[in-house]
């Protein structure tokens, strides 16, 4: 580890608190966006059904298609720069495997309970990462997106903010950012904690001091820390993401705790979440599960329970291909076929539960689904 890396790793708590306080004061500025009563459309990794995820093209398409917010998932490079990737694993969404100069960095890691073999973001500096190009994750389902393979760089969080701010200035529409802090516990153990850099980045940009920002995580401790440092501000919300079943958030598992996502989705669990977060974000099937025939069953009580706890309800993720739709909405054109009508119909079924927002890989279809309600 070089001296610069050690300096970043050992930033004092005093500086962290001061940065958080500075941002908290800045966030007192009035938001430029009027409150909306209609559900919000979150562009999941950008318009990732149409362009390679987390690229300028994906974000541009999402904004053009009417998304209210765009999502950069955030991970850290070896030299401590926040970049937009869905996870630390690079092999599925970049052309890293085609770079012989990085062949020796192929390795195996277990992150948040999942083991992958390939290349990982925290083994690359930003300069090295910038030599890679993005590729489509599921080309068999999204060949139209795959035609853009190799065209776009991996983006830093600051580049995403600048781009969204520029698009806002061009369109005259304030566009929110819904960043997710990925693998916080893993990166902290690697000496690359995300939260401090994240708070500093928000504070450094005028746009994120005024425009809507909704911060997500599947972990708990990082959201509690962010609430402590940032407080409650007009343009800022915190979103607790959850999975399903008796699975523990990564930070809970690492600390030997017992809390599971299943417990977090109970009435008591939701009341606890409301003490530090504003939004509860479950997978869609936790709201209306699938039957054995893959058709929708009756809704659970979760939507009502979330609202009763005083939380917003913003589930993830709607995708427009048959393979991802409930059987009620498939059109028989093949599992990889794009099915716009079916996707819109499925979203409308869930919107009847009173969603405050939702994530979709195709924001244009989300906008149409809302318009038809």
Automatic annotation (TrEMBL):
<dbReference type="InterPro" id="IPR030395">
    <property type="entry name" value="GP_PDE_dom"/>
</dbReference>
<dbReference type="GO" id="GO:0042597">
    <property type="term" value="C:periplasmic space"/>
</dbReference>
<feature type="domain" description="GP-PDE">
    <location>
        <begin position="39"/>
        <end position="370"/>
    </location>
</feature>
<keyword id="KW-0378">Hydrolase</keyword>
<dbReference type="InterPro" id="IPR006311">
    <property type="entry name" value="TAT_signal"/>
</dbReference>
<feature type="signal peptide">
    <location>
        <begin position="1"/>
        <end position="34"/>
    </location>
</feature>
<dbReference type="GO" id="GO:0006629">
    <property type="term" value="P:lipid metabolic process"/>
</dbReference>
<protein>
    <recommendedName>
        <fullName>glycerophosphodiester phosphodiesterase</fullName>
        <ecNumber>3.1.4.46</ecNumber>
    </recommendedName>
</protein>
<keyword id="KW-0732">Signal</keyword>
<dbReference type="GO" id="GO:0006071">
    <property type="term" value="P:glycerol metabolic process"/>
</dbReference>
<comment type="similarity">
    <text>Belongs to the glycerophosphoryl diester phosphodiesterase family.</text>
</comment>
<dbReference type="InterPro" id="IPR017946">
    <property type="entry name" value="PLC-like_Pdiesterase_TIM-brl"/>
</dbReference>
<keyword id="KW-0319">Glycerol metabolism</keyword>
<dbReference type="Pfam" id="PF03009">
    <property type="entry name" value="GDPD"/>
</dbReference>
<dbReference type="GO" id="GO:0008889">
    <property type="term" value="F:glycerophosphodiester phosphodiesterase activity"/>
</dbReference>
